[in-house]
Amino acid sequence: DQQVKQNSPSLSVQEGRISILNCDYTNSMFDYFLWYKKYPAEGPTFLISISSIKDKNEDGRFTVFLNKSAKHLSLHIVPSQPGDSAVYFCAALMDSNYQLIWGAGTKLIIKP
Amino acid sequence: NAGVMQNPRHLVRRRGQEARLRCSPMKGHSHVYWYRQLPEEGLKFMVYLQKENIIDESGMPKERFSAEFPKEGPSILRIQQVVRGDSAAYFCASRPGVSSPLHFGNGTRLTVT
Hints:
The complex is a heterodimer.
Chain A: E1 4-5, E2 10-14, E3 19-25, E4 32-38, E5 45-51, E6 56-59, E7 62-67, E8 72-77, E9 86-94, E10 97-102, E11 106-111
Chain B: E1 5-7, E2 10-13, E3 19-24, E4 31-37, E5 43-50, E6 53-56, E7 65-68, E8 75-79, E9 88-95, E10 103-104, E11 108-112
Parallel strand pairs in B: 2-11
Antiparallel strand pairs in B: 1-3, 3-8, 4-5, 4-9, 5-6, 7-8, 9-10, 9-11
Protein backbone atom coordinates (compact mmCIF):
# COMPACT_ATOMS: atom_id res chain seq x y z
CA ASP A 1 0.00 0.00 0.00
CA GLN A 2 1.62 3.20 -1.20
CA GLN A 3 1.02 5.91 1.36
CA VAL A 4 2.88 8.56 -0.66
CA LYS A 5 2.30 8.70 -4.37
CA GLN A 6 3.97 10.64 -7.14
CA ASN A 7 1.85 9.75 -10.11
CA SER A 8 4.01 11.36 -12.78
CA PRO A 9 7.17 9.34 -13.44
CA SER A 10 8.54 12.20 -15.53
CA LEU A 11 7.90 15.83 -16.43
CA SER A 12 9.40 17.95 -19.18
CA VAL A 13 9.43 21.76 -18.84
CA GLN A 14 10.90 24.58 -20.89
CA GLU A 15 13.73 26.54 -19.29
CA GLY A 16 12.42 29.70 -17.64
CA ARG A 17 8.89 28.35 -17.16
CA ILE A 18 7.31 27.00 -13.98
CA SER A 19 7.79 23.35 -12.98
CA ILE A 20 5.06 21.84 -10.81
CA LEU A 21 5.67 18.50 -9.17
CA ASN A 22 2.80 16.80 -7.40
CA CYS A 23 2.53 14.41 -4.50
CA ASP A 24 -0.51 12.75 -2.90
CA TYR A 25 -0.70 10.94 0.40
CA THR A 26 -3.26 8.75 2.08
CA ASN A 27 -2.36 8.85 5.78
CA SER A 28 -3.92 11.83 7.55
CA MET A 29 -1.49 11.32 10.43
CA PHE A 30 1.41 12.67 8.38
CA ASP A 31 2.31 16.08 9.70
CA TYR A 32 5.60 16.93 8.04
CA PHE A 33 6.56 16.74 4.40
CA LEU A 34 9.88 17.06 2.63
CA TRP A 35 11.13 17.32 -0.93
CA TYR A 36 14.46 15.86 -1.95
CA LYS A 37 16.30 16.23 -5.22
CA LYS A 38 18.52 13.51 -6.61
CA TYR A 39 21.08 13.58 -9.40
CA PRO A 40 22.28 10.31 -10.99
CA ALA A 41 24.97 8.53 -8.98
CA GLU A 42 24.45 10.84 -6.00
CA GLY A 43 22.43 10.65 -2.81
CA PRO A 44 19.22 12.64 -2.36
CA THR A 45 19.67 16.25 -1.27
CA PHE A 46 17.19 17.97 1.00
CA LEU A 47 15.38 20.78 -0.79
CA ILE A 48 12.48 22.17 1.22
CA SER A 49 9.97 21.04 3.83
CA ILE A 50 6.58 22.02 5.20
CA SER A 51 4.78 21.37 8.44
CA SER A 52 1.10 20.47 8.38
CA ILE A 53 0.27 23.64 10.30
CA LYS A 54 1.24 25.64 7.23
CA ASP A 55 -0.11 25.65 3.71
CA LYS A 56 2.87 27.25 2.00
CA ASN A 57 6.62 27.46 2.45
CA GLU A 58 8.94 29.38 0.17
CA ASP A 59 12.70 29.28 -0.30
CA GLY A 60 14.07 31.21 -3.25
CA ARG A 61 12.83 29.66 -6.48
CA PHE A 62 11.19 26.78 -4.61
CA THR A 63 7.73 26.88 -3.05
CA VAL A 64 5.85 23.98 -1.52
CA PHE A 65 2.07 24.10 -1.16
CA LEU A 66 0.11 21.81 1.12
CA ASN A 67 -3.63 21.09 0.80
CA LYS A 68 -4.51 18.98 3.81
CA SER A 69 -8.15 18.45 2.89
CA ALA A 70 -7.09 17.02 -0.46
CA LYS A 71 -4.04 15.26 1.02
CA HIS A 72 -1.98 16.82 -1.72
CA LEU A 73 1.23 18.78 -1.90
CA SER A 74 3.09 20.33 -4.75
CA LEU A 75 6.54 21.75 -5.39
CA HIS A 76 6.79 24.79 -7.65
CA ILE A 77 10.08 25.81 -9.23
CA VAL A 78 10.13 29.26 -10.80
CA PRO A 79 11.91 29.92 -13.07
CA SER A 80 13.12 26.46 -14.05
CA GLN A 81 16.81 26.15 -14.84
CA PRO A 82 18.80 23.39 -16.58
CA GLY A 83 20.45 22.45 -13.28
CA ASP A 84 17.02 21.59 -11.91
CA SER A 85 16.93 18.48 -14.11
CA ALA A 86 16.91 15.67 -11.57
CA VAL A 87 14.61 13.20 -9.85
CA TYR A 88 12.45 14.77 -7.15
CA PHE A 89 11.21 12.72 -4.22
CA CYS A 90 8.37 13.63 -1.92
CA ALA A 91 8.56 12.19 1.61
CA ALA A 92 6.22 12.28 4.60
CA LEU A 93 6.70 11.90 8.32
CA MET A 94 4.54 11.46 11.40
CA ASP A 95 5.88 13.31 14.41
CA SER A 96 5.63 10.20 16.51
CA ASN A 97 7.51 8.13 13.95
CA TYR A 98 10.97 8.82 12.58
CA GLN A 99 10.44 6.75 9.44
CA LEU A 100 10.22 8.78 6.28
CA ILE A 101 7.73 7.38 3.78
CA TRP A 102 8.89 8.09 0.25
CA GLY A 103 7.19 8.51 -3.08
CA ALA A 104 8.68 6.80 -6.12
CA GLY A 105 10.01 10.05 -7.56
CA THR A 106 9.38 12.25 -10.58
CA LYS A 107 12.09 12.82 -13.14
CA LEU A 108 12.16 16.51 -14.13
CA ILE A 109 13.73 17.42 -17.45
CA ILE A 110 14.35 21.08 -18.19
CA LYS A 111 14.58 21.75 -21.92
CA PRO A 112 16.82 24.61 -23.09
CA ASN B 1 32.18 19.90 7.71
CA ALA B 2 32.30 16.81 5.55
CA GLY B 3 28.99 15.34 4.51
CA VAL B 4 27.85 11.78 5.02
CA MET B 5 30.58 9.53 3.62
CA GLN B 6 29.82 6.12 2.19
CA ASN B 7 32.25 3.61 0.83
CA PRO B 8 32.77 1.90 -1.40
CA ARG B 9 30.82 3.73 -4.10
CA HIS B 10 30.56 0.60 -6.17
CA LEU B 11 30.75 -2.97 -4.94
CA VAL B 12 30.58 -6.11 -7.05
CA ARG B 13 30.04 -9.46 -5.37
CA ARG B 14 29.38 -12.95 -6.62
CA ARG B 15 26.38 -14.84 -5.31
CA GLY B 16 27.11 -16.28 -1.89
CA GLN B 17 29.76 -13.74 -0.93
CA GLU B 18 29.48 -11.15 1.80
CA ALA B 19 29.02 -7.43 1.22
CA ARG B 20 30.06 -4.79 3.76
CA LEU B 21 28.89 -1.24 3.28
CA ARG B 22 30.29 1.55 5.41
CA CYS B 23 28.82 4.88 6.42
CA SER B 24 30.41 7.71 8.37
CA PRO B 25 27.73 10.19 9.45
CA MET B 26 28.22 13.92 9.54
CA LYS B 27 30.07 15.25 12.54
CA GLY B 28 27.72 15.67 15.45
CA HIS B 29 25.06 13.36 14.00
CA SER B 30 24.17 10.44 16.22
CA HIS B 31 21.17 9.15 14.26
CA VAL B 32 21.95 6.92 11.27
CA TYR B 33 19.52 5.43 8.80
CA TRP B 34 20.02 2.96 5.97
CA TYR B 35 17.81 2.94 2.90
CA ARG B 36 17.70 0.75 -0.17
CA GLN B 37 16.67 1.89 -3.61
CA LEU B 38 15.70 -0.67 -6.20
CA PRO B 39 15.52 0.34 -9.88
CA GLU B 40 12.44 2.48 -10.67
CA GLU B 41 11.47 2.64 -6.99
CA GLY B 42 11.72 5.13 -4.17
CA LEU B 43 13.85 4.71 -1.10
CA LYS B 44 12.83 1.99 1.32
CA PHE B 45 13.71 2.29 4.99
CA MET B 46 15.84 -0.53 6.31
CA VAL B 47 17.21 0.30 9.73
CA TYR B 48 17.65 3.15 12.20
CA LEU B 49 20.58 3.18 14.58
CA GLN B 50 22.06 5.34 17.26
CA LYS B 51 25.49 4.78 18.74
CA GLU B 52 25.74 1.11 19.81
CA ASN B 53 21.97 0.66 19.52
CA ILE B 54 19.59 -0.57 16.87
CA ILE B 55 16.45 1.49 17.33
CA ASP B 56 14.34 0.05 14.53
CA GLU B 57 15.23 -2.67 12.06
CA SER B 58 11.72 -3.33 10.84
CA GLY B 59 12.63 -2.57 7.23
CA MET B 60 15.49 -5.00 7.08
CA PRO B 61 15.12 -8.59 5.80
CA LYS B 62 15.15 -11.01 8.72
CA GLU B 63 17.92 -13.15 7.28
CA ARG B 64 21.37 -12.35 5.92
CA PHE B 65 21.19 -8.62 6.72
CA SER B 66 22.62 -6.96 9.79
CA ALA B 67 23.67 -3.46 10.79
CA GLU B 68 25.74 -1.90 13.51
CA PHE B 69 26.87 1.52 14.61
CA PRO B 70 29.71 1.02 17.08
CA LYS B 71 30.91 3.53 19.63
CA GLU B 72 33.94 4.20 17.45
CA GLY B 73 34.00 4.03 13.69
CA PRO B 74 31.46 3.99 10.90
CA SER B 75 28.12 2.30 10.70
CA ILE B 76 28.26 -0.99 8.82
CA LEU B 77 25.53 -2.66 6.79
CA ARG B 78 26.43 -6.28 6.26
CA ILE B 79 24.81 -8.62 3.77
CA GLN B 80 25.78 -12.26 4.00
CA GLN B 81 25.45 -14.77 1.17
CA VAL B 82 24.34 -12.15 -1.32
CA VAL B 83 21.80 -13.01 -4.02
CA ARG B 84 21.01 -11.21 -7.29
CA GLY B 85 17.98 -9.57 -5.71
CA ASP B 86 20.28 -7.71 -3.33
CA SER B 87 21.60 -5.64 -6.25
CA ALA B 88 20.55 -2.09 -5.48
CA ALA B 89 21.77 1.29 -4.34
CA TYR B 90 22.15 1.50 -0.57
CA PHE B 91 22.01 4.93 0.97
CA CYS B 92 22.99 6.03 4.42
CA ALA B 93 21.59 9.16 6.02
CA SER B 94 22.25 10.93 9.29
CA ARG B 95 20.84 13.73 11.35
CA PRO B 96 21.53 15.25 14.76
CA GLY B 97 17.98 14.72 16.01
CA VAL B 98 14.69 13.24 14.84
CA SER B 99 13.21 16.64 14.00
CA SER B 100 16.02 17.59 11.61
CA PRO B 101 16.12 16.82 7.88
CA LEU B 102 18.14 13.82 6.83
CA HIS B 103 21.49 14.29 5.12
CA PHE B 104 22.32 11.55 2.66
CA GLY B 105 25.55 10.04 1.45
CA ASN B 106 26.10 9.32 -2.24
CA GLY B 107 25.30 5.66 -1.79
CA THR B 108 26.92 2.32 -2.48
CA ARG B 109 25.86 0.56 -5.63
CA LEU B 110 25.94 -3.16 -5.02
CA THR B 111 25.95 -5.46 -8.01
CA VAL B 112 25.64 -9.19 -7.45
CA THR B 113 26.80 -11.32 -10.37
